[in-house]
Design a protein that fits this description.
Blueprint (H helix, E strand, L loop, with lengths): L2 H19 L6 H24 L8 H16 L5 H23 L4 H21 L1 H4 L5 E2 L5 E3 L5 E3 L3 H23 L2 H11 L1 H6 L4 H27 L1 E2 L6 H14 L6 H15 L7 H15 L7 H23 L1
Antiparallel strand pairs: 1-4, 2-3
Helix pairs in contact: 2-7, 2-10, 2-11, 2-12, 3-4, 3-5, 3-10, 4-10, 8-10, 11-12
C-alpha cells in the first residue's frame, strides 16, 4: 500500500470519527442542520451525475420532491416507510425517465429552460390539487421511521440522534455507489458524452441513451433524499422544492467544483455552514451567494476543490519570485 493511500485512509478514518462524535457535542438545532446537510450531500452528488454528461437541469429539486410526495402518500395508505422510501426513489426515477423524452430533444440553454418548465408543471400540480397533494399547505403527519423488533429492540428514528446516524449511513452507502458508478464504464462514457459528444456518437455511442441513464439514476437518488427529508420533518409543501432550492443546488455544485467527485460535497458543506452563520441576515444571503459564485468563477473556475492546488501554485510562484529577486540583488 502506497504512502498516499495510507494517508487518504487515515484522513477518511479521522473524518468518520469526527462525524460519529458530532451528535453528542453539538446543540439540538445544529444536529438538525447536520441531518439536512447529509440529505443535501446526497442531492448534490446525484445532481453531479447528470451534470457530468454536459447538461444542467433545473428539475432536480422537483424530482427530489417527487420522491418526498410519493413516499409520504404511500406511507399514508398505510405502507411501511421502509418500503415507501425506496418506492419514492423509484417514482422519482420513473418521472425522470418520462421527462427525458421531451427534454433530451434539446441541448444547452433550451434543455435548461425546458427542464425548468417541466419541473414547474409538476410543482404546480402539487399546488393546485388539494387531493391528494394538499395544495399550498402540502402534506402533514408523515410517519417517522421506526425499528420495531418486539421485545428485542424498538428504536424511534424520529429522534434527531438516531436519524443522524441513519442519514449518515445511507449517505455513505449512496456516495460509495455513485462513486463506483462514475468510475465504471458508464461513468467514463458520461464524461466522454460531456466533452466529446459528437466524437462519441461517431464511434457508436448512443448519447441520448447515456444522458437518459444519468438523468434517471440521479433522479432515483434525489427521490430517496426527498423521502428521507419527508420522513424526518413529517411535513412537506411545494415551496420546499421550488426554484430557490434548485438554485442553491446549482451554486453548491459550481462553487464546490463540478470536475471532481468531492467538489459538490465541499461546496454544499462550506456554503451551508456560512449560510447558517448568516441566518439572522436573511436580506444579505442572496447577495452573498451571488458574490461567492462570481468570485469562484473568476478566481477558482474549478471550484473550491481546486483551492489546495491553487495555494501550492501561488506558494511556488512566490518562492520563485523571491529567489529571483535574491539572485538579482547578488
Amino acid at each position: 500500500m502506497s504512502r498516499r493511500t495510507c494517508l487518504n485512509a487515515a484522513g477518511i478514518a479521522v473524518v468518520l470519527a469526527v462525524i460519529c462524535v458530532l451528535p453528542f457535542v453539538v446543540r439540538p438545532y445544529q444536529l438538525d442542520f447536520l441531518i439536512f446537510l447529509f440529505i443535501n450531500v446526497i442531492l448534490v452528488v446525484s445532481y453531479r451525475l447528470i451534470a457530468i454528461t454536459g447538461e444542467f437541469s433545473l428539475a432536480h429539486a422537483v424530482i427530489m420532491g417527487v420522491g418526498a410526495y410519493a413516499s409520504a402518500l404511500l406511507a399514508s395508505l398505510p405502507i411501511s416507510p421502509w418500503i415507501s422510501m425506496p418506492l419514492g426513489g423509484v417514482a422519482a426515477a420513473v418521472i425522470a425517465y418520462i421527462l427525458s423524452f421531451p427534454l433530451f430533444r434539446m441541448k444547452g440553454f433550451y434543455f435548461l429552460i425546458g427542464s425548468f418548465a417541466a419541473a414547474e408543471a409538476i410543482r404546480l400540480c402539487w399546488v393546485q390539487f388539494n387531493d391528494p397533494f394538499g395544495g399550498f399547505r402540502g402534506l402533514r403527519g408523515i410517519p417517522v421511521l421506526e425499528i420495531d423488533l418486539g421485545d428485542l429492540l424498538y428504536l424511534d428514528l424520529g429522534a434527531p440522534v438516531p436519524y443522524y446516524f441513519f442519514a449518515m449511513i445511507v449517505g455513505l452507502i449512496f456516495l460509495t455507489v455513485m462513486y463506483r458508478i462514475e468510475h465504471s464504464r458508464f461513468g467514463f462514457v458520461f464524461h466522454a458524452v460531456h466533452h466529446k459528444d459528437t466524437l462519441a456518437q461517431s464511434v457508436g455511442v448512443d448519447v441520448r441513451r447515456y444522458r437518459t441513464i444519468a438523468f434517471v439514476t440521479g433522479g432515483f437518488f434525489a427521490g430517496i433524499a426527498g423521502a428521507m427529508l419527508a420522513h424526518y420533518v413529517t411535513a412537506i409543501n411545494p415551496g420546499l422544492f421550488g426554484l430557490k432550492q434548485m438554485l442553491f443546488v446549482l451554486v453548491w455544485v459550481l462553487v464546490g467544483g463540478l470536475g471532481h467527485f468531492a467538489g459538490p460535497i465541499i461546496g454544499v458543506t462550506v456554503l451551508s455552514i456560512i449560510d447558517e452563520s448568516l441566518r439572522g441576515l436573511d436580506e444579505l444571503r442572496p447577495g452573498f451567494y451571488g458574490l461567492v459564485l462570481i468570485a469562484t468563477m473568476l478566481f477558482l473556475p474549478d471550484g473550491l476543490v481546486s483551492l489546495p492546488r491553487k495555494v501550492m501554485q501561488w506558494l511556488v510562484w512566490l518562492r520563485k519570485r523571491g529567489e529571483g529577486a535574491l539572485a538579482r540583488r547578488e
